[in-house]
Design brief:
Helix content is 38%, strand content 20%. The protein is built from 14 helices and 16 strands. The strands form three sheets. An eight-stranded mixed beta sheet has the order 3-4-2-1-7-8-9-10, sandwiched between helices. The protein has a six-stranded parallel beta sheet with strand order 13-12-11-14-15-16, sandwiched between helices. Strands 5-6 form a two-stranded antiparallel sheet.
Length: 377
Amino acid sequence: MRIALFTETFLPKVDGIVTRLKHTVEHLQRFGDQVLVFSPEGGLQEYKGAKIHGVSGFPLPLYPELKLALPRPSIGEALEAFKPDLIHVVNPAVLGLAGIYYSKSLDIPLVASYHTHLPKYLEHYGLGMLEGLLWEILKGMHNQAQLNLCTSTAMQQELTEHGIERVEVWQRGVDTELFRPALASQEMRSHLSQGCSDGPLLVYIGRLSAEKEIDRIKPVLETIPNARLALVGDGPYREELEKHFADTPTHFVGYLAGEELASAYASADAFIFPSRTETLGLVLLEAMAAGCPVVAARSGGIPDIVTDGVNGYMFDPTDEEGAIAAAQRLFDSGNERETLRRNARLEAERWGWAAATRQLQQYYQDVLTAESMPFAA
């Protein structure tokens, strides 16, 4: 198959969507498909054999790490030269509109996928009154597609309830070869804790942004004796978080990648994840693959990954004391923590990227087959 992939974010940016897409592109190419990626310009022209068509853009005012790339005629020229069998738009917003437009004008089957729970983000930026309008916009875009994919059963239900049609779950994936318990090290533990590695070490890994609700980790940190917190990553909310955690033993580590990142997961005692806006929570799977027990909000796609008391602990996100109680359960569990670690790794081992991409290929093939039928809608 020849697949044109439109995405509002791609390498060199680092986030969960980019992680999924780079593994997907790599495996599609490895399986014999050809991929052309349309994304905001980032300096890359190729990735794992797939050509990247960068489109110039400008930083999003509320989120300067993201670039808005406006559609332009060169996109249509590149598409006509590539001759895709199918167009896949990821989180259609601005650049994705070009994918939707050209799918119609060139009569190319369209698949869309939903990864960022934008309607729920709005309240964290003081724009909650626009949630209903945004759902209508999303519905209008996604219902142009022959198939809509999302990353958890909770999101499938929510999208369907908001009028988005033909929704299926694109299964989770994680690199279990990179993220593994064997990378735990005293050196990394010392780095994360700024040399104070004897006490409990909590870690958060991901974007430092308002919708992740990282500030809610502070009460947890303050109630666990001698605990320290490492925040790995960066983002637009870092300055606010530095002020919020100024009187606590918190280390802002910045970005880590590759085996350093995997070692950070494996070397911590608990991964704390309070976000209520996750469509999946890929970082949770990475933590579990590294054998790091997770404490996470029972929200969005997280219950698809975490089984409470078996491979991690969940808490009611509306309960201000919930995260504290869940973390205390973890640190009071003694030998049971090793069972949690083993179970977390076993769960992660079920979800490799190759299987997730094979499933995606089958979805693509189903769409192409339906389009080729004489009376296909």
